[in-house]
Design goal:
Largest sheet: 4 strands, antiparallel
Strand content: 15-25%
Strand order of the largest sheet: 1-2-3-4
Structural class: alpha+beta
Helix content: 55-70%
Shape: elongated
Distance between the termini: 15 Å
Number of strands: 4
Amino acid sequence: MRVQFDATLDDCVDTWARASKYSRSSRHWLWSEYFFGMILAGVSTAGLLHFLNIAPGRDNTVAALIGGGLAAIAYPWGAWWYTRNRIRESIRESVGTKPFSVEVELLPDGIGAKQNGAQIKY
C-alpha cells in the first residue's frame, strides 16, 4: 500500500513537537534547559527588583521574591516558544518553505519512506 501527500513546514514542526514529547532524550534536554533557565530567570529577576528598590524595607525583599518566582514560572512557556521557532528555522533551511512530496509505502519487510529523492526503509 502506497500513500503520497504534500507536507508543509508547519507539518514538520508539529511532527517534531509531538515526537519530542515521547522521546526520553528530547524530554531530558528540554527539561534540563528549562530547569536551569528557570533558576537563572528567577534569580536575575529577583536581583534586579531588589536592586531597583521598588518597595522600602522588608517589602522590597518580598516583592523581589514574588517577581523572581513569577519569572521562574513563566520561563518554560517562553522557552518552548523559542525552541519551536529555532526548530522552524532549522527545518526551513533544510527543506525550504514550499510544500514537498512525501511517499510512504508498506513493504513486506518494513515501512519505506521517500522524500526529496531520498528513500529510507524502517
